[in-house]
Specification:
This protein has six helices and four strands. Strands 1-4-2-3 form a four-stranded mixed sheet. Helix content is 41%, strand content 11%. It has a domain of 123 residues: OmpA-like domain (60s Ribosomal Protein L30, Chain: A, 2-Layer Sandwich), CATH 3.30.1330.
Amino acid sequence: MQSFRYTNLIVATGLFVFGAACAKKQVAVATPPPAPVANNTPAPRATTAPPPRRQTPTQPVARTQTPNYPNAATRARIDELIGRIQDAYFDYDQHSLRSDAIATLASDSKELAEILRQYPGYKLKIEGYCDERGSAEYNIALGDARAKAAKDYLVNAGVSGSQLDTVSFGKENPVCSAHEESCWQKNRRVHIVAEKTNS
């Protein structure tokens, strides 16, 4: 009986020691990871590019343009005015305008200038002529000087210089073929015509 108690005492002491040893041993507990620190910076927003603007086709601005060439009725009026501006005549071996030549060019030139101003593409040609005396080369130069003298007068009267062309025929294409002064006088002249157009 005593040995039983002794045995129990030993067992109880062993359990006590074992329990005390177990009580001192701490079980390692896994610590949870620290909570993430709240970031006060807002997350960048996904930016989407704005839709491309539609380009509306640009309509050309309608411009009212002055026609380059007159209609048939206006051309007839121009021809009438040119017909009334008779040939201007020159003295022998001269290209300066005489008083009668100035009077001839002045006839209706103002109205002609007003009409031509409306049609910048319409042109007149001033032809210069000479009598039969002198060389062909000399008369070409003299006819050119006569045509340019008439052009200068018309420009001063208001006709645009860009609408006046000059040409010299020298002693070619005479209006009179007799070999005398009265005939030669008719050939020393300038003549104005409308230039031919395809319109």
